[in-house]
Write a structure and sequence with these properties.
InterPro entries: FAD/NAD-bd_sf. The protein is built from 12 helices and 20 strands. The chain is an alpha/beta fold and 450 residues long. The chain folds into 2 domains: 262 residues, FAD/NAD(P)-binding domain; 127 residues, FAD/NAD(P)-binding domain, CATH 3.50.50. Strand 19 and strand 20 form a beta hairpin. The longest helix has 21 residues. It starts with 35 loop residues before the first strand and ends in a 14-residue tail after the last helix.
Length: 450
């Protein structure tokens, strides 16, 4: 059997290249958000950018974006850069742009800047044009997001930490750390937070000295240290997904000896973290045709920790050379300064311990929520959403885009392409509601199970 292994050079795209950009709108306003707006979008990441872009095309311009970070997608790229990540897993066809309009899509944008790309990056564009899987440089994606935000009204981001979203009469009240705003509709795009370690690992509370979560300083060596150096630290990485692979690669690049703890029997390499069929309408139809019990089972079965194929040659070579030791089919019993205890009694020692345990969607039971629990979560912990509009069944002026729509759209809802599918439904519902003056409420008996 032939196994396709993309060249690991795909992982080494440059970062920080200068890109032409439209005039900057200036500093993000620090004053409280306006007291009244038509649409409030909570979250300025790729999902929020997709929503604003779609509303812009629908003629909805009175939109205010609220986010705790100062610029569009700021937190998204800060997390990426903390890992030293240079390419995205999502291919060129998955991007925050809007389909169905004569608009600049991600592939168009990359082709317009052909002269700035490396030969490897150009080959990826040709692959994308031919309909094959392709890898998008973080640099290109960030420049595209800046272009999209500048041309579609996303420059109106307001710094604010949203504390509560509540529907009151015919308005949505958004309470932030800087004041209260009201909107006719609100779209929640809060993203995901890291999954915390089990309390039993060290008794709960702050991490022990030398232990860091993947999105904290110290989990990966700073860029200045990512070159082989004799006598470097010994690093322990816990986790089996793409984030863990980045941490392992960065540590190996700094010259460290790495112990990698993987709960599964082996590392799982695949192009996407979900089955590709769920990115297509027929895959979503197969998911939507099940009851909620079956959907929960499908969400567990079809989304699992996996690593891009591009990592495989490097990691296998490091293991064969002895700089990487992989502890497969092992679970963690305890974490202490300088050591991780596994279920077979092994104590794996390290100067630094990095935890990459996955993420938890905000707005789902177990993750933070801006809505009251009785509105935010259904009986099974997932929100009850109208499948046609993705509005909360018990708060129809509040919509969801992102991971919280997984019970409607399937495993791909947490990916950038899933954001676009959700956005199309949400933007159409909001634009129609603004024209009619009222949101489209679900008919009696119609819910996420149809």
């Amino acid at each position: 059997m032939t196994v396709f292994l993309p060249a690991p050079q795909l992982l080494d795209s440059p970062r920080g290249r200068p890109w032409p950009s439209l005039p900057a709108p200036g500093d993000v306003p620090a004053d409280p958000p306006p007291s009244e707006t038509e649409v409030a979008v909570v979250g300025a990441g790729p999902a929020g950018l997709s929503v604003v872009s779609a509303l812009w095309h629908d003629g909805v311009r009175d939109v205010v974006v609220l986010d705790r970070d100062p610029a569009p997608c700021a937190r998204f790229f800060a997390r990426i850069d903390r890992l030293g990540q240079r390419v995205l897993r999502s291919p060129y066809e998955h991007h925050p742009g809007v389909e169905g309009y004569r608009d600049c899509e991600l592939l168009d944008f990359a082709r317009m800047h052909w002269g700035r790309l490396t030969p490897v990056e150009r080959r990826e564009i040709r692959m994308a044009q031919s309909g094959h899987r392709s890898v998008v440089p973080v640099d290109v994606f960030e420049a595209y997001c800046e272009h999209l935000s500048a041309t579609h009204g996303m420059d109106r981001v307001r710094r604010a930490e949203v504390r509560e979203v509540r529907e009151v009469d015919d308005r949505v009240r958004i309470t932030t750390d800087t004041g209260v705003a009201t909107a006719r509709f609100a779209v929640l795009c809060p993203g995901e937070e890291r999954r915390e370690a089990p309390t039993g690992w060290w008794g709960g509370g702050p991490t022990p000295p030398g232990v860091h979560y993947w999105d904290e300083p110290g989990a990966a060596p700073p860029p200045s240290l990512r070159s082989p150096a004799p006598g470097a630290d010994r690093v322990v990485v816990v986790g089996a997904g793409l984030t863990a692979a980045h941490l392992v690669t960065a540590a190996l690049g700094s010259g460290a000896r790495v112990d990698w703890v993987v709960r599964a029997e082996r590392e799982h390499y695949q192009c996407a973290d979900v089955n590709a069929s769920f990115f297509r309408p027929e895959g979503r139809a197969r998911f939507e045709g099940r009851d909620r019990t079956d959907r929960r089972a499908m969400l567990r079965a079809h989304r699992r920790a996996s690593i891009m194929f591009e990592f495989r040659p490097r990691l296998e070579r490091a293991e064969s050379e002895g700089s990487l030791v992989v502890h497969r089919a092992r679970t963690v019993l305890a974490v202490a300064p300088g050591a991780v205890t596994l279920d077979d009694g092994t104590r794996v020692r390290g100067d630094r311990i990095a935890l990459a345990l996955g993420t938890v969607p905000n707005g789902v039971a177990g993750g933070a929520s801006l809505l009251a629990p009785e509105i935010a979560h259904g009986d099974d912990g997932w929100p009850d959403l109208d499948p046609r509009t993705l509005a909360h069944a018990r708060s129809p002026r509040v919509f969801a885009v992102g991971a919280t729509t997984s019970m409607v759209l399937g495993p791909a809802a947490r990916n950038i392409d899933g954001h676009r599918v959700a956005t199309a439904r949400v933007a159409a519902a909001i634009a129609g509601g603004l024209r009619r003056g009222t949101p489209r409420r679900p008919e009696v008996g119609v819910g996420v199970d149809g």
